[in-house]
């Protein structure tokens, strides 16, 4: 149970002359939940995108499950098919839900099983309905996205990511675009996933949620991991001045 599901070593990424990730080392146990916090511009989204290979690191190693990539000048560029297989292991949920407006809720969740996994329609439908049940929206399957609240849209986006049956779920400020009264239902869905044993990395400004649901908190600043420890310890008794200063904005 303590096996690492995600392991990152020596990860670096620059955009032009801007060093956004500087030698990041980071791991998440199987079934572990890590909250990634830090000021705007500290590199949280870039780190998450590297885990999904939406951003290609300049150097370092990333493994998810039994698949590993080594980035650097001496390593060959990973093949497209290997990248796709790797990417399919991580489900990503963004601040903006990006649902397909011309498809029903069910159509949105069936899309990847049908087109990426090439499942037969009946099996894709069953899988999609099972994921919609998980997020409490099976009864909305035939509605169009524009008829849903922001919280419901985000729960559909979570179901859509789950329909790839990923080994890891990555959340990038999944509740930041929501009206305050809709945040709770999305956090509840995330909490249920965590309780069910999903390995998760959550970028969030919901500090109370992070303290309660994450087992570890990683605080980043300027492309570096500044503090990494048990969630309650980091929130209640931060060891670094930078962490303390950041957290003071939330009280
Ligand atoms: P965070 O999510 O913690 O706010 P980001 O990872 O989004 O931080 O960004 C870290 C830094 O990298 C910022 O200065 C941002 O402007 C820059 N950055 C992110 N993506 C790109 C990109 N594609 N091109 C150039 N600069 C980028
Ligand atoms: Mg970000």
Automatic annotation (TrEMBL):
Coiled coil: none annotated. It is a peripheral membrane protein. Its main location: membrane. GO terms for molecular function: ATP binding. It is found in: Cell membrane. InterPro entries: AAA+_ATPase (IPR003593), ABC_ATPase_HisP-typ (IPR030679), ABC_transporter-like_ATP-bd (IPR003439), ABC_transporter-like_CS (IPR017871), MetN_ABC_transporter-like (IPR050086), P-loop_NTPase (IPR027417). Keywords: ATP-binding, Cell membrane, Membrane, Nucleotide-binding, Transport. Belongs to the ABC transporter superfamily. PANTHER family: AMINO ACID IMPORT ATP-BINDING PROTEIN, L-CYSTINE IMPORT ATP-BINDING PROTEIN TCYN. This is Amino acid ABC transporter ATP-binding protein.
